[in-house]
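User: These chains co-purify. Model them together.
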Amino acid sequence: MKSIFEKDLIAACIRQDRKAQFELFERYKVALYSTVYRILDDEAEAHDALQESFIEIFKGIKKFRGESTLGAWMKKIAVRKAIHMTKKRIYFSSLDQVDAFSEAGVLDGWIDGQMLDQAIRKLPVGCRSVFLMIEVEGFKHAECAQMLSISESTSKSQLFYAKKLLRESLNQVLKA
Amino acid sequence: MKENFDLPEFQPNEHFWDKLQGEKSLEKQLSRELSHLPLAAPKEEAWQGIEEELNNQHSIRPFWIGVAAVFLAMVAAYILFMMVKVDPFSNEQEYLLTNTYSEMEIPFEVPKMNKQKVTSVPAVKEKAVQKASKENFMIKEEIALGEIEVPELSMPVFITEAPLAVNERPRPVQEDEIAEESFHEVRVSWGINEKININTAYSAKNKLTDTERELSKVRSNPGKLVLRFSKGQ
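Assistant: Joint model of the two components:
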């Protein structure tokens, strides 16, 4: 039922119906804003990314063929925008002296979403972007590597590095 | 008071603790907790910004359509202009022919006036036409004239009337006021009987005296202005 209504909503958005556009915004604003906010870790930049994402969504919604869900399609656009905005300040730590591929290990306790969110925010921007794209948004390494202009192996090593840092960070919190 | 029932107790699996410890691994906790990450909501003004941007984009489109239309009109006008344009070289050649002050010899033929037969233009009156066709006038010799007093033409004097008022009708022209038509024809030709070549000085090396000397050829022209009249009838 929802999907049928979503089709109507898409059709109305293609006709540039402002009410339908607002409805689409209301439905997905939290999901998209949360995504870009985690990547950018800056409120103002996240709002800019959200605005640009929705403009692109409204402009390009006629190209949406339904190969994925509308939410996934929109999230992909938002992630691209956020990555594009943060690309200038993305750096990737050299992993030569870091045992990045070691076992992620066991935590000393139980965590919740709030703790995990705090730990993710503390990650360096490069490996944080990779972690969010792969683990949270569900992108493949190839897609992630293409968006970040890195190799697939770099993407994989940065993901392991992010997990290692997360374990250390979370264990510190759990011990405290 | 709750009644105590003597219910049997069950022990968990002896591997349970290990299994529970295994759930503490980062990978498992991540897969469980990533779907419970806190969500953030944008500001209330976020939609206004998007709406303004959408409105701006709508207003930009007609502007660019206008610009494109003007550009196309200019291109069309240019193509039309190029199609109807006169060949620029023809004008340039004319200019060069008429404005070249060089040593170039300009072909010039002096009309042979002595033996030229002047044929009259057919007149309206039948008698005059017959007479003109029988006689051919021969100019025997060139006449070099000095200063000639040009006789005043006796033209009928028209007295100008006071300007008419807007509602007044113009006075009809009387028959005696109309000048009689004349069928006499006179041909006049003139020219200087000597060619003058003037070299102008364009370079800075040439002195002013050279230019003066050249100009003196015109001022004290040895040639004579010859006026030739040939009688029509």
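Chain B has six helices and two strands.
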